[in-house]
Structure to design on (504 residues):
């Protein structure tokens, strides 16, 4: 087999042969004249079949027919003026997609393609490549053929976009990564090259190309998502004309994830990109950017898989608050809107993010939301889940938050004092009990009169509640006695008490 392939290697043509060949810069050309590169018949077959090659990954949908590949000459074996043509020919050669599910299938051809891809990367890295329009078109075509593919709905049956039950699952690795990795490397070097003219390249790296890149963030392979993160970030930086479209397209991904599917593997990576993008926003912030915060970022607190991308989401949100402190009250209202009621682990996450936001909140914005905020914190203080109660009590370990509370204690302490008292009386966890006692002691040292006032008010309210409960009990007893004393006639409803049931 190897001898047959080696026998088909292109040879340098004679002078008489070279006069009969015509050079070409087109993407579909497999021959280069004048330098002595010979066009082989099998090379033409590769080009013809590569045009019809499936664009979906062979790792997902195995291709039924795979064209063979034969290597072209090395770049060092041709004159400098012909290397661009050879570069395009090699790009065409790499447009064949192989089936990587079968490790024993087309092994030689796979290795030859991999070596060719490495040659292309080295050629770009050396700075020898001139990114003419045919070269740009060839790179984009080769990248699209190898990278852009459709993931089936059952690509991973128990996948929930990294959420909930699937959080601890082992990641899935694409068997075609040996080729995909080099294609991604080539694409990164191509986009980041200083010699690339963005005005020409934007015709090929267009809106359709960007949308296809975004679709790839659904990949289960974390290595691929990491490469995509780098590429999309570089595209955002290189092509200023595409920036509004990228922001809108990513917003649409978030909308679908939050309000429709709650399944997506690349939310963390997309948020990581936008963390860098947001830090570069100019002041004052545009209305478009604020809408992105309110409509896209804040609702991302809703899905149950929040824990997987919480770190990146918190960074994006705090970046907005740091740039424009007036947004703090709106952000906290958004957190309160999506505050978890039955998910204790999410509540711990919310309290952690709340601390980060409050750390950048000034007094004016704090006073706008302190009443609903500390009504919610009071509920967390009384949580029977000790981690929630403990995390809420730890808020006072932050000096900035403690200072905000101290200056507004006349409003805040009456809201949380009943919760503190209930913890001291009834909470089962000793750590929560100790922290609560320490907090009450801190407030007592800060303003003893206010604490006594809150204590008296709490005792009065509890007395009223006991009195109301006693009255209800007496009223029910009277109703029961009246019902028992009246004879039952017809279809009259009967109130049966436990005592009456036993007597019967």
């Amino acid at each position: 087999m190897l001898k047959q392939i080696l026998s088909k290697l292109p040879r340098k043509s004679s002078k008489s042969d070279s006069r009969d060949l015509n050079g070409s810069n087109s993407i579909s050309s497999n021959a280069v004249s004048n330098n002595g590169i010979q066009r082989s018949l099998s090379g033409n077959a590769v080009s013809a079949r590569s045009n019809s090659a499936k664009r979906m990954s062979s790792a997902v949908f195995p291709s039924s027919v795979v064209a063979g590949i034969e290597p072209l000459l090395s770049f060092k074996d041709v004159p400098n003026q012909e290397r661009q043509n050879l570069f395009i020919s090699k790009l065409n050669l790499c447009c064949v997609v192989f089936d990587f599910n079968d490790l024993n299938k087309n092994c030689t051809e796979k290795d030859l393609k991999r070596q060719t891809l490495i040659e292309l990367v080295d050629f770009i890295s050396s700075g020898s490549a001139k990114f003419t329009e045919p070269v740009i078109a060839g790179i984009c075509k080769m990248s699209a053929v190898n990278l852009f593919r459709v993931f089936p709905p059952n690509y991973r049956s128990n996948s929930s976009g990294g959420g909930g039950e699937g959080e601890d699952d082992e990641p899935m690795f694409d068997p075609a990564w040996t080729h995909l990795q080099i294609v991604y490397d080539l694409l990164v070097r191509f986009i980041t090259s200083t010699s690339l003219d963005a005005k020409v390249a934007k015709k090929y790296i267009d809106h359709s190309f960007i949308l296809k890149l975004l679709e790839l963030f659904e990949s289960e392979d974390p290595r691929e998502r990491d490469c995509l993160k780098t590429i999309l970030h570089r595209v955002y930086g290189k092509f200023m004309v595409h920036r509004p479209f990228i922001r809108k397209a990513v917003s649409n991904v978030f909308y679908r994830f939050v309000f429709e599917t709650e399944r997506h593997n690349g939310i963390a990576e997309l948020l990581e990109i936008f963390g860098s993008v947001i830090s570069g926003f100019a002041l004052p912030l545009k209305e478009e950017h604020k809408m992105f915060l309110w409509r896209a970022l804040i609702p991302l607190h809703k899905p149950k898989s929040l824990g997987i991308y919480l770190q990146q989401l918190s960074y994006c949100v705090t970046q907005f608050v740091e740039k424009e402190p007036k947004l703090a009250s709106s952000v906290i209202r958004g957190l309160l809107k999506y505050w978890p009621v039955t998910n204790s682990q999410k509540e711990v996450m919310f309290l952690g993010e709340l601390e980060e936001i409050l750390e950048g909140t000034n007094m004016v914005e704090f006073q706008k939301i302190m009443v609903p905020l500390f009504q919610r914190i009071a509920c967390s203080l009384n949580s029977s889940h000790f981690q929630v109660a403990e995390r809420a009590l730890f808020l006072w370990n932050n000096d900035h938050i403690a200072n905000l509370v101290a200056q507004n204690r006349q409003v805040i302490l009456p809201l949380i004092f009943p919760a503190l008292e209930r913890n001291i009386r009834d909470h089962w966890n000793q750590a929560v009990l100790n922290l609560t006692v320490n907090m009450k002691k801190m407030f007592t040292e800060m303003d003893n009169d206010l604490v006594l006032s809150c204590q008296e008010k709490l005792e009065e309210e509890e007395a009223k509640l006991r009195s109301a409960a006693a009255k209800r009990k007496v009223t029910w007893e009277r109703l029961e006695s009246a019902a028992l004393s009246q004879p039952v006639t017809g279809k009259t409803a009967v109130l049966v008490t436990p005592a009456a049931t036993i007597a019967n």
